[in-house]
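Hey team,

Sharing the Laminin EGF-like domain-containing protein run so nobody has to redo it. Sequence (1131 residues) first:
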Amino acid sequence: MFSGLVIFTFVLTNICGQVLVPPYTNLALGKRITATATCGEINGKPIKEMFCQIAGSNQYSPHNQYSYTTVNDRLSVFQEFKAEKQSFVQGGQICDFCQANTSFAHPAENMEFHVAYVWIQMASSPRPASWILERSVDYGKTFMPWQYFAETPAECARLFGRNSLQPIIEDDSVICTHEYSGIHPIENAEIMINLMEDRPGRHNFSHSLTLQSFSRATNVRLQLLRTKTLHGHLMDVNRRNDPTVTRLSKCKTCSKGKAELFWSYTQNLQYYYAIKEIFMGGRCVCNGHAGTCDILDARRPRLLVCRCEHNTCGDQCERCCPGYEQKQWRRTKEGEHFVCEPCNCHGHSEECEYDAELDAKNLSLDIHGNYNGGGRCLNCRDNTEGVNCNKCSFGYYRPKDKLWNETDVCHRCVCDPLKHTGACQEETGHCECKPQFTGENCDKCALGYYGPPECKPCECSLNGTIDEICLPEDGQCPCKSNYGGLFCSKCALGYTNFSAGCIGLYFQVFWMIFYNFNCDGITFVEFALILECKCETIGSVHSHCNENSSQCSCKSGFAGLSCDKCASGYFNYPKCECKLRINLPKECKRLAYINEKLDCDCDPSGTEAEICDKASGKCICKGGFFGEKCDQCQKEFYGYPHCKVKKKINVFISDQKCNCSKIGSQSLICDTKTGDCQCYANFTSRICDRCAPGFYEYPKCMPCSCLASGSKGLTCDSQGHCYCKDNFQGEKCDKCKENFYNFPICEECNCNPNGVVTSFAGCDKVAPGELCTCKRNVAGRTCDQCQPTYWDLQYHHEDGCVECDCDIAGSLSMLNTCDLVDGQCFCKRYASGRKCNKCAYGFYDLQLHNQLACRKCKCDVGGALGIGCDIKTGQCKCRPRITGKRCNEPIENHYFPTLWHNKYEAEDGLSPENRAVRFATDQSLFPNSSMRGYAVFSPIQDEVILEITISKASIYRLLLHLMNPTTVDIGAEIIITPTYTHTQDVEQSVKATFSPMDMPSTICVNKNQPFVLNPGRWRIHIRTKQRLFLDYIVLLPSEYYEGTLLKESPNEPCEGLSKEKNNCVDFLYPPLKTAARTSVEDGLMTETIEDETVRKPLEKMPIEILPAIIGNAAYIRADNRSRQIHMEIED
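Structure output:
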């Protein structure tokens, strides 16, 4: 018997709330395959060898017993067999006639997939007799079974247990099947494994976590346990002509040696596994947040990554993207859609994290104004903090009229650091007093302090003094009754716990009754006594006890109020030795190590709560247990350590304790722990008194022999009648039901009336193996789909379907293919329409040889109305007073404003007295000054006012072109105030510092705090009393420095012969093995001939547009018409 492992390592390593699921794909394509024994390969290198290398065996040598040579042969056996059979990979003990491919695909990363089905095709060997399909979810570290395979149900039970024969009940049930272990066909057999079939959650996959977990895999392994030997182990080597074990073919030209070699091959055909095709259908695990998965990271070229939507991120969309963590990430399911929401940070942060505690307590405000979710904002700006950046930082407060989404919502507190903490009240800004101060203005001493304005701490303890006296009188503070000391800072005698308020000790109360001698009354006297703790020295940790219960603190192994007894599990006071066999206390383990005679061996599972007798140390057994250590079951019990009773109707069984059935069990002795009897293959249950699945009529238990393809399972009823599928009938489900044809498929005669020919008379009137007779342009087993390049299956169409009629200029790869249902052709990127005969919006000039179909309109975003243009000429739709094909030119006598139109000369400014400013013109002090000169700041002229006009509302940065001629830093203040606007605008200001300069510089003064300016007239006040030269100012709108409209994606195809490095879209066609190009000069005739009469000029493809890196390429037209090419060739 030969065991082998074939391991397939694949890359399991791929805003509206809807369930997004990637399409199914072949997961095995291009993945690395490894095996424990591979023929034709050693250490990853291909070799030509006659006999396969067993895993761990020595390499082939010409001196071993299998040596032979083919030097004198005209054609080697290897070449003959390779010419006869296709190349495949096989592993085992006999010959290998394949050459291994030395190019392996080794994935750099791994990823999980949902696998739905596995299809395997064998090569020159039968299917394995017994094997296991396994999966791994930890990238090949460990494997678990997916499905078992064996020759018979009995083999399933023997190899994989009786549970493997149970029908699928749960989504993760692992079953054993035998329909794929048959001997026929011997070669090219197929194995189709549908992992989703008959599982309860297959129709509701997104809600079944169990089925999702069952279908997950990172690696797949075929564990091949036993070959299909055809009883080859019984074959006599001398009887080579035995037809039961050989397949000898006659060869007229073969020599004897070759015939014998071929016989040797056929004789041992069954001793290896040969697999030539594997297909695994599955899809990426994207948790319902991605519709596709592909290669997105150039650093991981073999990793399929989900294209996440719903604001999710990660290779499997397994988390919310940064800034979108208001809600805890969830998978999207059918009926339970989920989209990651952005956190509500009121514009003060773009970072946040999810906090489950905030979510549970409803403390986080979402973007809808509800306290729903757990988003916590991080790194809040603008002096804010808190869960939603809705709290001012320490030292700041929010005025009453400010909203949280305003940039300057938090203002600094104006407080005295000597009396105030630095914090102030919300809305009012009222400062918070330090602990030693109180009063509205924090000008009084708080409780516990004295002596304003310093307010020193009181010397007396306020908690312990009467009337909260602060200073001692005559050296003693007036203390309360339960406090003492000079400053009342400790508990009085009889009281304890100063921090808790000096609580009195517990005194046990006694009542004594006194009778007077005159017997005319009774006197009650109350005594409160303090009792002494009576803790035993041997068993107590110390001599103190609990003040309420007088319970002493006992050592391990001791118990009782005074620790004068042994605890449970200990005996022989005062030694208190332990009698516990397992889970020993540390002290007991230490004693057992020191004193070897110490006997700690009671089994806790079999003993009562006391464990052992306190005096003798003998173990106290529970009912059903016996033995010195209580570690055995009594005779009438089994299943230690649970010891279940073996009885029926309260009568103990003595001669047949296990009650094993004499008919169904192999022995009358049962398992001492489980009580299970050893059953024959056709019996089951604990005592083997029932028929196993697949057998019926106890006690005969005959096999059901149900046809696997026709029955619903292995079981049958008490009469031996199998449970047939809907299209089968018969006692063994081995016949087709009426109106079903082609056994063993048993297909229903459900031919589509729109797709069958008018002469179709029924499924029983066609040739054997056929079902329906389709119209010319119709395909499918039941004539229910159109042939390629056709669509719209209708009864009134003569040929069933009509041609796609795609415009090849706009179709992908210039193919005439379309959707079989709606007829939509598969368009190039910028083509549209059902026939792909139009350009998409924003594109024009549909061209045959344009890889993208159309050219971009390139309309100017500022001058055009939208991105659309005329689909033929490319003329954009311009705004008023703008012209040009792209709407990027002003009409005559008009101009486009630039940044220079927001430039204001300082020498044109005014003083606060509304006079012209003083300015200088000395170029040696301010080189290259503009216009008339530059303004000069000094103590005489400390302010310059510039009047400006804003035509467009935006956020502006202010640039100053100036020079600091001094040797010290100069501070200045810039204030901008509205003079005439149509909005409620406020004054804005910023302070700036200018370092000494050798040459004039242009400086942005409000980069972190830009001005918000609305249309209208404004005044800019620039103030400084130090010497400073100012040439001009420039207002820079955000559209210029942010460049939001300057983002442009490539829209033109790359040209193969172009040397310019422009942004373009590069498409590559799959290379052909053989193809040729030729240049056609204009003078030569090249035309196509259709239907032998119609002649049309042949379409010419400019060689310039063919990418050079394609290699061999050819133009292919896909339709059902034949053509002839007529060309003139000069000698």
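The first strand starts at residue 4 and ends at 9.

Ping me if you want the raw files.
A.
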